[in-house]
Amino acid sequence: MEASRARGAGTDVDSGLRTRLVDVGVELVAREGVQALTLREIARRAGVSHGAPRRYFPTHLELLSAIARRGFDELGARATAVAGDGGAPPRAQLTELGRAYLEFALGNRGMYELMFRHDLLESGHLGLRDTSLPLFARLVELVGRVRPDADARLVAGALWAGLHGIAQLWGWGSLQLATGADDFAPLLGSVLDAHLGPEGV
């Protein structure tokens, strides 16, 4: 009985430290960006030896994937929240989804950069594609309802690329300089119009 309790306590400690390492990574990427996410720095801030993370994350890529998973979870939760009961017209849902995407990207620049690193998505660690692809599938479904005449996957891909471009260029300050805009909402509207046609037409 005591041995069983000891094993259970050990499991709780292991789980707690694993979570702590990811928590530290999430905080670090928010404050200092992707370049700060080294195993050694995460271990130092978690208060453990620099080799400790290897017990839970054998490779640096696996730890980065666990951190990125938090970002996808948050983005997914935001997308679900703006969808509500799904009763709004698809164009309105796309507008809200685009706004939520841009707000997340601009408010979490380090995490956003990490989430879309090709090596993480391709690695298969923690099923990041299984988390990200349903978000894209939702975009495709809504685009298909607005543009039944088009290849919804291609249009959704182009729309996503447009959103990604706004996020990057707005974050750098380039779009504000080029357009004189002080709000990304008109740019979001223009991207939607470009790929879906003017609203109400």
Molecular structure report:
- Helices cover 76% and strands 0% of the residues.
- α1 (2-32) packs across α2 (39-46), α1 (2-32) packs across α5 and α4 (90-107) crosses α5.
- It is mostly helical and 201 residues long.
- 26% of the residues are buried.
- It contains ten helices and no strands.
Key terms for this structure?
201 residues; 76% helix; single chain
Main sheet properties: none
What's the count of strands?
A: 0
Distance between the termini: 71 Å
Shape: elongated
What's the helical proportion of residues? over 70%
Which spans have pLDDT < 50 for at least 5 consecutive residues? 2-10
Radius of gyration: 20 Å
Strand content: under 5%
Number of helices: 10
**Structural class, please?**
mainly alpha
Order of helices and strands: HHHHHHHHHH
> Could you report the average pLDDT, rounded to the nearest whole number?
88
